[in-house]
Amino acid sequence: MSDLIIAPSILAADFANFGEECRAVEQAGADWIHVDVMDGHFVPNITFGPATCAAIRPHVKGVLDVHLMIAPVDPMIEAFAKAGADILTAHVEAGPHLHRTLQAIRAAGMRPGVALNPATPAAAVAHVLDLVDLVCVMTVNPGFGGQAFIDMRSKIAELRAMIGPRRIHIEVDGGVDTTTAPLVTGAGADVLVAGSAVFRGGSVDDPAPYAKNIAAIRRAATSVMA
Ligand code: DX5
Ligand code: ZN
Fold first, then answer.
1. Which residue, 53, 61, 89, 132, has most beta carbons within 10 Å?
2. Mean of the per-residue pLDDT values of the chain
């Protein structure tokens, strides 16, 4: 699994213009669109929910990668399936029944992902690897865009070894830019979420910087990939 996927986070987009922003970043070379759902309880910030995902869906040609920073997760799974999420990622720390949650996401027709906060060890997902398509390694404490990268290279490498021949993406989320991207792809990540580093300097009226930013991250990241 060595094809690099770049997933811009619309947390850094213009909140009054999600449809156009999604079309602009896809046009600029984004592979997936990353949607950060926050509940003001699991994380100290509130963003948006399934209704916003459903509104965005028709504007996204590719994969809608939905990152749930909410607790509890299970009561909301069906709503995100109806909203058109392709990947639905739940946090290890969001509840006591991760195994059940991941089974429920698959049963609802989506690809399950599991996310780990910086303080959570790789071993926390050892017994759910057969249930997921993606492991998301947080390189910031979730809740806000634009935070400084926390080095999780040893966790990424440990996860890559644990995953072995399974076809599971390792996604890295938080503080990814042209400097940090090669560090994490070098350790075994293949999906890069980037908010600030993609949307920086551009807008729907002037989207040229988006393509430049995505190309720069891709160039830096792939320079070290096998
Ligand atoms: C953090 C979110 C991230 C965030 C990344 O809670 O999960 O997806 O938007 O933003 P940057 O790339 O600005 O760190
Ligand atoms: Zn995210």
1. 89
2. 97
Residue 101 alpha carbon to ligand 2 centre in Å? 18
**Which pLDDT value is given to residue 106?**
99
Question: Which residues span the domain enclosing 134?
Answer: 5-222
CB 70 near ligand 1, within 6 Å:
no
173 is catalytic: yes
Q: What is the CATH number of the domain that holds 14?
A: 3.20.20.70
pLDDT in tens, 63-86: 999 999 999 999 999 999 999 999
**196 DSSP 8-state letter:** H
pLDDT at 226 over 70: no
Q: Which of 58, 69, 77, 82 is nearest to 35 (CA)?
A: 69
Is residue 62 within 8 A of residue 99, CB to CB? The reply is: no
Provide the domain count of the chain. Answer: 1
pLDDT of residue 1: 47
